[in-house]
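ARCHIVE CARD
CATEGORY: sequence design from structure
SOURCE FIELD: tokenized fold
FIELD CONTENT:
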């Protein structure tokens, strides 16, 4: 493993952390790019989901990790051969692997499993309520990032938006809930909460390291853990004939989800470099409103009171967050 050296990495040449307002706007921009990327990825993941099938959720998660793995190793190897910072210090290898396991098995796999049980419109809000809560608590204890009165107010508006938007679930999610048993719904809610908590804590670890390392050096072990760990789990649990029965369309949708996820994964890594965890997570809640609006504009879903109210609360929360950043 290479240690820190003076030569700048590829991504450091692309984005050099500035100061003040410019730094904040770079963080906000990357945060919104991440939200758009995750919205697109979640739509593809929902299309791929199979209700109550944990093994299929593992297989989807393994596919989703492929684009991020390729992107990360391309940057890491480029930096290595240029003599730039490519890998994290040895002391961070185990913590980053553990973070990767938590994000892949506790976050991505549980999120995918929840999609098949309670649908996208409920899974995302529940997951985000735990991301906001878990991220705020973990960043306060491990990074010393303050939770001010304005931050709490912004969080309150965004949590309200999360709750209201969950009432506006689309017809597809309502059909899932109608056919699901009480136990399946409870399981879906529980695993969505586990996913959100895992994402929130993992975000704190990423934020702690990207301030001093290239984003690729922080994320390469996490993405590698995703591909190796989830593929190994799939091979051990699923009969080979079932793996080989995956259709080209299913593979294409899963890889498309991974492509958008890779864009979002790196964008949120850059956002964590420029903004505190709470602010990045709050910006990322905009994907809930994006998904709801996409349902109206693309899939002709009805424009409901819940949707309008949730979008307005999301906007208020984001405005409060941005005012705090500029103050």
């Amino acid at each position: 493993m290479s240690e820190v050296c003076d030569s700048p990495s590829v991504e450091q040449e692309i984005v050099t952390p500035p100061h003040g307002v410019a730094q904040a706007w770079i963080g906000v921009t990357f945060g919104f790019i991440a939200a758009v990327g995750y919205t697109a990825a979640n739509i593809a993941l929902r299309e791929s989901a199979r209700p109550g099938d944990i093994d299929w959720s593992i297989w989807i998660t393994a596919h989703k990790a492929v684009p991020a793995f390729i992107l990360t190793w391309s940057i890491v190897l480029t930096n290595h051969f240029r003599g730039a910072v490519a890998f994290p210090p040895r002391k961070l290898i185990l913590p980053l692997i553990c973070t990767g396991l938590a994000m892949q098995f506790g976050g991505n796999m549980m999120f995918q499993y929840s999609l098949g049980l309670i649908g996208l419109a409920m899974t995302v809000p529940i997951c985000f309520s735990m991301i906001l809560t878990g991220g705020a608590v973990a960043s306060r204890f491990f990074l010393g990032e303050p939770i001010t009165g304005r931050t709490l107010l912004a969080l309150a508006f965004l949590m309200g938006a999360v709750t209201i938007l969950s009432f506006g679930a689309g017809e597809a999610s309502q059909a899932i809930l109608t056919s699901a048993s009480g136990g399946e719904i409870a399981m879906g809610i529980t695993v969505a909460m586990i996913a959100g908590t895992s994402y929130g804590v993992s975000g704190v670890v990423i934020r702690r390291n990207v301030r001093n390392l290239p984003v690729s050096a922080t994320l390469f072990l996490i993405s590698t853990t995703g591909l190796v760990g989830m593929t190994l789990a799939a091979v051990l649990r699923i009969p080979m004939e079932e793996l080989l029965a995956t259709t080209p369309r299913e593979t294409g949708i899963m890889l498309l989800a991974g492509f958008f996820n890779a864009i979002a994964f790196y964008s949120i890594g850059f956002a964590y470099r420029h903004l505190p965890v709470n602010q990045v997570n709050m910006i990322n809640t905009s994907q809930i409103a994006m998904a709801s609006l996409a349902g109206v504009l693309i899939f002709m879903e009805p424009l409901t009171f819940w949707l309008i109210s949730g979008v307005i609360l999301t906007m208020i929360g984001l405005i409060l967050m941005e005012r705090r950043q500029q103050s």
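CARD ANNOTATION: Residues 100 and 225 are 6 Å apart (CA to CA). Residues 1-6, 13-18, 323-327 have pLDDT under 50 and may be disordered.
SHELF: design records, drawer C
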